[in-house]
Amino acid sequence: MSLTIRRARPNEAGLVFALVRELADYEKLAHEVRASEADIAEALFGANPRLFCDIAEWNGEPAGFAVWFVNFSTFSGRHGIYLEDLFVRPALRGKGIGKALLAHLAKECLANGWSRLQWAVLDWNAPSIAFYKSLGAELMDEWTICRVSGPALDALADGGR
């Protein structure tokens, strides 16, 4: 059995989008997906990409992915990686693919002199939380994610009205 991890290629926007949909189904959030394959293609492979995707292949077949972007810590004064999505297809879990994807991103951080790798996990996802803790991840319970979108984003952009 072999595992390889590589950067997504421009002709794979459909694959990346399919994995996004599978992740959304797993998280019971399929109704939240507004992106299209074209949106994913532009974000990953457009003129000025700010989003990256690494594909894990098990025996040459797509097994999962990590979608990430570069962030910045003003406290450390250095960049890092924010992992937006990590997903391994259910039939291929337990083979070390998720751990390998995270290790791959950790190496990316170290190779670039970046200070950290961070992500969010749904609070109901006990298997993932246990997995992340086993890798040394620190859960930041004192932090709450904030989001402004839709009509609230429009109103805020209009001066908070």
DSSP strand content: 15-25%
How many β-strand runs? 5
Order of helices and strands: EHHEEEHEHH
Strand order of the largest sheet: 1-2-3-4-5
Contiguous helical run count: 5
Taking the sheet with the most strands, its summary is: 5 strands, mixed
Structural class of the helix and strand makeup?
A: alpha+beta
Rg for CA atoms: 17 Å
What is the 3D shape?
A: globular
Uncertain stretches of 5 or more adjacent residues: none
Share of helix, binned: 25-40%
Query: Ends: how far apart?
Result: 58 Å
The overall average pLDDT, rounded, is 96
Architecture overview:
By secondary structure, this protein is α+β, with helices and mostly antiparallel strands. It is built from five helices and five strands, in the order E-H-H-E-E-E-H-E-H-H. Strands 1-2-3-4-5 form a five-stranded mixed β-sheet, with helices on both faces. Helix 1 packs across helix 2. The radius of gyration is 17 Å and the shape is globular. The termini are far apart.
Give the helices and strands, then pairings.
Blueprint: E1 3-7, H1 13-26, H2 37-45, E2 52-58, E3 61-73, E4 78-88, H3 97-112, E5 117-119, H4 126-134, H5 150-157
Parallel strand pairs: 4-5
Antiparallel strand pairs: 1-2, 2-3, 3-4
Keywords, separated by commas or semicolons:
161 residues, alpha+beta, 5-stranded mixed sheet, 5 helices, 24% strand, globular
Short description:
Helix content is 35%, strand content 24%. With 161 residues, the protein is of the alpha+beta class.
